[in-house]
Hints:
Blueprint: H1 2-12, H2 15-23, H3 34-47, H4 53-59, H5 65-71, H6 76-96, E1 107-111, E2 123-127, H7 148-159, H8 163-183, H9 198-204, H10 206-214, H11 221-229, H12 231-242, H13 248-258, E3 264-268, H14 275-282, H15 287-299, H16 303-315, H17 319-329, H18 335-345, H19 351-363, H20 368-395, H21 399-412, H22 417-427, H23 435-443, H24 445-455, H25 457-460, E4 462-463, E5 466-467, H26 477-480
Helix pairs in contact: 1-3, 3-5, 6-9, 12-13, 12-14, 17-18, 18-20, 19-20, 20-21, 20-22
Amino acid sequence: MRLSILRLLYFREDMTAIQVVVEQGWTRKTVQDDIENHWGSLLLGKYATFLPYSELRDRIHPLYLGYAVQCRGINNNEVSEYAEHIHQIWSRFAKEKPTLPPSYPSISVKASLFENDDIEIIHWTDLSEKLTIFSNGFAWGGIGTGNIKDWQESREEMMSPNRDHNYQKRRQAAQETVEKQEINGNTWFAKRFFTNALEQIVIEHSDLVEQWLEAISTDNPEEIQQLHLVSSFYEALCEVLLKQPNPDQGIQLYWQIQKLERRIGIEDKHSGFEFLDYALFQAACVDSIKQAWRTKLEQCKTDRELLELAILAQSGNGCDWLWLNIESGIQSLAPIEKSRVITLLAFIQESKAGEWLSSLVPEQPDTWVKKLAEISHHRWQKNNWAMHWFCQFINADDDVISWTSFRLFLRCVDSRFWLWRDQVQAEGSVSTFSPKRRQFLEDNLETIKHRIQTNEEPLEKHYLGHKILFGQAFPWMSYLLQ
């Protein structure tokens, strides 16, 4: 009941009632009550601007202090106090270094990216087994230089009759790890650290930023432990550093975080893409950023990863860079380069990509490259079919036709839906896209996400249109292994 009242007051902006809540002394709960802490901290952070910052700091959850500082107008003194508060927490863990279980699993924190993040509940409980079938040294289609023992052990674990039991043990280990960190006062662990006011700290307190980065600048086990303990803070710091005119510090921190074996990744709750990857492709298109994008492209080892990269580039500042790579790659004599850009063309929104693929198919001799061009053209068309049926769902006068269109939409949809959904909805008919249909769409977002996952399973199992099979050599393998 109390959290519902806090949420209602936050949206209704009833200052009289809010004043009562503040005067009655609402303070965040020390026990795990994330939802009430969320709405109460947002309420005080946004509306209790009459409270001294020192009192507000003691009453709301530390993760929302940046939001409060922003709502209070980015006062320089309060920015400095907030920076010092961050540094105190960071210093404590730098000195004490609470231990983490050696076997705690990777944790995915699901959060809102496209919606208003300051009113979204953050869920940390979506855990993943993160089973690695091949080690980093393996090349798709061949054994490469990897250790075959890694693959055998992972395969045995995946096929084990105790797999479900082992998965439950991982979940329990993650739960216990998070609870223990919270008891130890680590309020940043497995939570999203909001970037509000952090950019101002980066600008005004570069000395602190240098100290935070210096402490994790090597592969020393103690420094890696520090990065694990407060990884959500470092991810937020990385997002902000990537936005700076000189993003080199952000790029270096990005790769340091990516190297962690057991990530606590912050992911968009809809697409499943990591916030850090969005931030990387939102960065200004300077040479060092383009090199990082190129590295990400070369790291793609499945068609699903190429799809994700194409979406990230189109949703950020990488669209022109993507086209430049395609225009140069299509002329390449190396089959791996040419095949990669043909695959990428399938995932580009513009009609020019479809036209290019249409012209490529008859031009190619009857080889695997021609087959890849045909596959890519079909993939490009499927996205257009999904857009068509989604428009029909929104605009159809008859509810039966609308529902039928939605079912057909589900047959075609993939992650590109999150790229064009808002635009298509905005262009839809106000009269036909009724509150009932809007509610139907909201109620079926989980269904859409599930169908996206199902529809993209073939992409996970293919690279450049070829099925990924252990020990199989592909026509372009010699170029990949060079």
